[in-house]
Predict the 3D structure of the following.
Amino acid sequence: MSEHHKTFAAVDLGASSGRVMVGRVGPGTLDLTEAHRFPNRPVRVPEGLRWDILSLYAGVLDGLRAAGRVDSVGIDSWAVDYGLLDADGALLGNPVHYRDTRTEGVAEQVWATVPAADLYAATGLQYAPFNTLYQLTAARSTPQLAHAERLLLIPDLLAYWLTGEAGTELTNASTTQLIDPRTGEWAHGLAERLGIDLGLFAPLRRPGDPAGLLTPRVLEETGLTGPVPVTTVASHDTASAVAAVPAAGERFAYICTGTWSLAGLELAAPVLTEASRAANFTNELGLDGTVRYLRNIMGLWLLQECLREWDHPDLGGLLRAAAEVPPLRSVVDAGDAAFLAPGRMPARIADACRSSGQPVPGSRAEITRCILDSLALAHRRAVADARRLADHPVDVVHIVGGGTRNELLCQLTADACGLPVVAGPAEAAALGNVLVQARAQGLVGDRTAMRRLLARTQPLRRYEPRGDPAAWRAAQDRITGP
């Protein structure tokens, strides 16, 4: 490969699987291939739900071995969760899963000290029961936290194991509810009021910063020849995915689809109004000081859980059958925390329809159509609310991530939003990861140049809105009221 082309390993960890992707970047070229994919199976132990972090790390090492020679490595993952290390740098137990029940009722304890409105004004983060702030409050009396000398968010923990150097990447840190989105620094006053020791966190890093070199032991285990740098990327997978939105200007909304749907806007400054808090929008930090102004929606988790319950039937056939089901017959609130926990998803969706006086979906195709209609409806509401609250025009909706492969969901989202949808790329988080590494080595320019390269090199599909907008308004009224 010429000196004008370089190869990058993107470690991209999702809530249900991990992958190591290999990106090759050069003048006008951007190619991505999968080196290794591995499952992410949380484990329920007597003390609760935990991530199998050692299995994930083994998958990362296997992936780097499969990737072969690379010029840099970057890591992104889901947000909010963390590992605790002792004074010797040893991990104090498997990281707790954000779906664990330990944070039930914790938010009310926090609000007794810092009211919810003050918390939002300080951090701009939406209420979610699993935010790191609530997790740390729940862990306050545990022996692990008492013995901890260092807290590392999941991608930072893996980078530490690869390099021996500790840091806290900013886009992911912004999901802890301990960062001031106006300054991009820790909210020291808030942490002090809540008794949270910010000294547990390693120094902040920003996308593009160096994160160390693969250690000799890692080089030996992966068969790589050093030195191989690890580059800090936008380590929250949504931040990497938004960096890979192939938009041509600023008048766009995005929906990052996968286990979650994250729907919103890319802004220059946070929106910290009371109306924004009431609408449950979050201000997370993105590449180059941008703000990811978005709402969390339960996403394809609803369908994933149904497929698991149904013993994984053929998805293509199920989606074709769902497309034949009459639209908008029954819908649920896809942002409802009642759907957060795993288990019995088809029955819970049926119960939600029954309790709201709608027809109860009986067949698998009807339940699937209910889920997809409900997700499109949630996308519609999030895009409309974001436009209004941020006073930001939107001409097109970009869908990126795994949901781009679901053609029915993409078309329904265009129909619901009344806007054209551009779907792709599917591996947006990995591509954003690769592009930040490439930019750190001088191969690509600013965000605009990155997006032009994506639009030229990645397969995209456009969906035009169709059907009657009034039907979507009526369906929305069934959930939220007129």
Notes: The mean pLDDT is 96. The radius of gyration is 22 Å. Residues 364-390 form the longest helix (27 residues).
